[in-house]
């Protein structure tokens, strides 16, 4: 059939087809399909797939797509990101979805972050970290060799680790290299805290001592507790040292002289942690910027004004 005749025939068939009822149209199509060969059926299959499989993330307004995505769990969303570049782009930009996923993991949400991809990245990083923790692959481990008895006390600060041991010594390590920077003879250490110049130790011998790193000399000795000292803290600005002990007390000392300034009672168990810090919130007893002392035993935490 010539092209001109075919086009005229096709127009007449189209007009006749449009005049049919739905049932008649279906019967007509069934008949044409039965007469079709492999080439026609393949052509029909390819075109029907395009017509019937609509990409709703492309067709719907972005706000409506975001609303629908909120009903999917994060793992399903990550699977959906693999469908196409368009799906990945839309799903990754759905900030509310990923913020909610991060909240469910315990993250605090900062609404000032403008990057629409930020919270998805945070979620993926957190999930990877959790998997590494589960598989025991989260940390690179190494051993610091040097003590000859039990290491009971640890304190980490700015890439340095101090260890206190039953071998009557304390050591300062560079964590990145594993090298021992200082090693000094002390007493048995139950607690340690340090800065660049000095080390403060709490001991099972019921005392607290201050040591000089460079010479290893004991510069101050604090006596008064009747039980092991499990925690120490100090502040050079205030010239104060505090200690918590198995004798249920907290003692406040003059750091420079070793004089006991106060003994705080009230705990009914070993005091295992003391902390000196500035108050960050306003309360009936304290204002932001005031120094406070926190002490903890097995059952309670006490807050005192310094």
UniProtKB/TrEMBL annotation:
Keywords: Repeat, WD repeat. Residues 54-101 form the F-box domain. The gene is Fbxw2. This is FBXW2 protein. PANTHER family: F-BOX/WD REPEAT-CONTAINING PROTEIN 2 (PTHR44436), F-BOX_WD REPEAT-CONTAINING PROTEIN 2 (PTHR44436:SF1). CDD domains: F-box_FBXW2. PROSITE patterns: FBOX, WD_REPEATS_1, WD_REPEATS_2, WD_REPEATS_REGION. WD repeats lie at residues 144-183, 222-263.
């Amino acid at each position: 059939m010539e092209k001109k005749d075919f086009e005229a025939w096709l127009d007449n068939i189209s007009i006749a087809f449009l005049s049919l009822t739905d049932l008649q149209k279906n019967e007509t199509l069934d008949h044409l399909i039965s007469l079709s060969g492999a080439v026609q059926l393949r052509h029909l299959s390819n075109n029907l797939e395009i017509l019937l499989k609509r990409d709703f993330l492309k067709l719907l307004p972005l706000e409506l797509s975001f609303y629908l995505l909120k009903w999917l769990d994060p793992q399903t969303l990550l699977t959906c990101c693999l469908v196409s570049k368009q799906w990945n782009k839309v799903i990754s930009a759905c900030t509310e979805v990923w913020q909610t996923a991060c909240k469910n993991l315990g993250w605090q949400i900062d609404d000032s972050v403008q990057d629409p991809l930020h919270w998805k990245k945070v979620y993926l990083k957190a999930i990877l970290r959790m998997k590494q923790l589960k598989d025991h692959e989260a940390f690179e481990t190494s051993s610091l060799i040097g003590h000859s008895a039990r290491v009971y006390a640890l304190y980490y600060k700015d890439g340095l680790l101090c260890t206190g041991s039953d071998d009557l010594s304390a050591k300062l390590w560079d964590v990145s290299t594993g090298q021992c920077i200082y090693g000094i003879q002390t007493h048995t250490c139950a607690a340690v805290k340090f800065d660049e110049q000095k080390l403060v130790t709490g001991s099972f011998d019921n005392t607290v001592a201050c040591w000089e790193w460079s010479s290893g000399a004991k510069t101050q000795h604090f006596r008064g507790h009747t039980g092991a000292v499990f925690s120490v803290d100090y502040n050079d600005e205030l010239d104060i040292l505090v200690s918590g002990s198995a004798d249920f007390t907290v003692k406040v000392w003059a750091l420079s002289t070793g004089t006991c300034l106060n003994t705080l009672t009230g705990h009914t168990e070993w005091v295992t942690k003391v902390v000196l810090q500035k108050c960050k919130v306003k309360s009936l007893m304290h204002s932001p910027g005031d120094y406070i002392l926190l002490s903890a035993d097995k059952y309670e935490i006490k807050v005192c004004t310094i």
